[in-house]
Design a protein that fits this description.
It contains two helices and no strands. With 57 residues, the protein is mainly alpha-helical. It has a domain at 1-28. Helix 1 (3-20) runs antiparallel to helix 2. The radius of gyration is 13 Å and the shape is elongated. The mean pLDDT is 88.
Length: 57
């Protein structure tokens, strides 16, 4: 399994965890939940960049 595939699977599991347990997409959202989602996506993009970088070398 590619490293990028592993990163994508971890990201999807994190999104499901955030939706079900942290209720990121509930009606009573605040700035903290928005920044949490933004930070998780930023970590995903960084992980995907490094996974792709190591696959090419």
């Amino acid at each position: 399994m590619n490293k990028s595939t592993i990163v994508i699977i971890i990201y999807i599991i994190g999104l499901i965890f955030g939706a079900l347990f942290l209720k990121i997409w509930s009606a009573d959202t605040n700035i903290y939940k928005g920044l949490l989602g933004l930070g998780w996506t930023a970590l995903f993009l960084i992980g995907l960049f490094f996974a792709d970088k190591h696959e090419k070398s």
